[in-house]
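STRUCTURE REQUEST FORM
Protein name: Maltokinase N-terminal cap domain-containing protein
Source organism: Solicola gregarius
Requested output: structure tokens
Priority: standard
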Amino acid sequence: MATIHRAQIRPTKIELLAGWLPDQPWYAAETDTELRAVGAYRFDDPAGEVGIESHLVRAGDGPVLHVPLTYRGAPLPGADAHLIDTMEHSVLGRRWVYDACGDPVYVTALAETILGRRTQAVEYLEVEGQGEPREPTAVVAGTGGDGDAPSDLSADALTATTAETVTVCRTPTVELRVQRVIDPAATPDGARLTGTWAGQSDPALLATARFS
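Status: completed
Returned output:
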């Protein structure tokens, strides 16, 4: 379950992404191109410590970009290379925002969702201390695995490298390929995460997994 607080956030998520995306090798738009949100989905952190939210955004008339983020209440040791920025949240205080591909909590959540061991988080909007269900703006699902995946998918010894439009996250038990630029026509085989959102009624590829 993901609780969404009514809060002021500075910078906003779109402002944060607008400052970070132009430096990424898979971003092809001009720096001053307007960035707009297309959809988003969340995963749960069983420990309740890390916010996990993946954004689908578009720069101008360009393709949909897939940007998973994690939000933490303190810096993640050894992950400076994946730190995007900090933001001030009027309810939760300062949050350290990471490119989630370098965060082991996200990598484990993604792998387990692809396998069908988890689903995307159910979202609740906090209103006067009560949680009201909120429809997600993107719906994702895993295809399941082939039975050979290990039971423990903790993302120890995580490395994340980007080539062209894919970020590869590797651990001793799984290799995840996170699509940064969405190709609606992509139809790979194997275990994968797909999603739909407004304007994308057919499931689009978001990530694939290969297990050791």
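Reviewer notes: The chain has a mean pLDDT of 91. The chain has two helices and 15 strands.
Form closed.
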